[in-house]
Every structure is written in structure tokens, then in C-alpha cells.
Design goal:
31% helix; Nuclear Transport Factor 2, Chain: A; 6-stranded mixed sheet; 134 residues; disordered C terminus
Length: 134
């Protein structure tokens, strides 16, 4: 029998790879149809369809996803991942490079495995930014 924490960690890393590759089919499997994603910078909320459309259309593309830290918690059929890392790419034609914190709530789906049902992302300062403000 596999360890649910290891399984969820692997699902999180599959999600990162799918985002980096713009793999809409993999994202479709990893995102629950009820997904609500909140972007901390704007407070806007997005659905699974919104996310898939951004990747499908090329309006969002990533060329870097570097994980700095990943914490994982599993409680029954619910899990939470806390990703910290650097992302870069383009959004709506504008280049970006950000250090981000993602908190994702996952549910175990008997057909698809772990799927993201809720997520929140916020930009966080890098270590050099923190030293500059101290």
C-alpha cells in the first residue's frame, strides 16, 4: 500500500510539470471541476475552465518552475500542499518573474486520484528583498 503523503507530493510535482509544459490534458486530470483559484495580488478568482483556457490559448506560459520548499499534509481524502518557489514566463504577453507561495487543497477522487479543488497564490519577497527591508 502506498503512502498518501508521497502520493500527494507526487501529484503536486506532476501539476508543476504540467504547468511548465502547458499540458492541458494533464491539468484537466489534476484539477477538480469545482476548482476556485484565488490570486493574492488581485484577489480575483478563477475556475478550472479559466485556467485551462489560459494554457490552451498560450496567454499564459511558464519557462521556469523552481521549487524551493514543499510541505504536504494529508487527512483522509483531503490534502494540502504548500509550495514555495520561483516562476517565470509570460501572462497576457507580459513577461514575469516572481517568487510565489501556493497553498492548494486537494481531494482524493477514486477515478482520477488527487485533484486540486481550491488554491491561493501570493507573491512573496525573496531573501535579498527581506534583507533590504531589515
Amino acid at each position: 500500500m502506498s503512502d498518501p503523503v508521497d502520493d500527494l507530493r507526487a501529484a503536486e510535482r506532476r501539476l508543476q510539470v504540467a504547468q511548465l509544459r502547458g499540458d492541458v490534458e494533464a491539468l484537466d486530470r489534476l484539477l477538480d471541476d469545482r476548482l476556485i483559484f484565488t490570486l493574492g495580488v488581485t484577489g480575483g478568482t478563477y475556475t478550472k475552465a479559466d485556467d485551462l483556457d489560459l494554457h490552451r490559448s498560450g496567454r499564459q506560459s511558464l519557462n521556469r518552475v523552481d521549487e524551493e520548499d514543499l510541505a504536504v499534509l494529508v487527512a483522509g481524502d483531503t490534502g494540502v500542499t504548500w509550495f514555495l518557489g520561483v516562476l517565470s514566463g509570460s501572462f497576457e504577453g507580459e513577461a514575469f518573474h516572481s517568487r510565489m507561495r501556493y497553498t492548494r487543497t486537494w481531494v482524493m477522487d477514486r477515478t482520477h486520484g488527487w485533484r486540486v479543488v481550491a488554491a491561493h497564490a501570493s507573491e512573496v519577497p525573496g531573501p535579498a528583498d527581506l534583507q533590504a527591508t531589515a
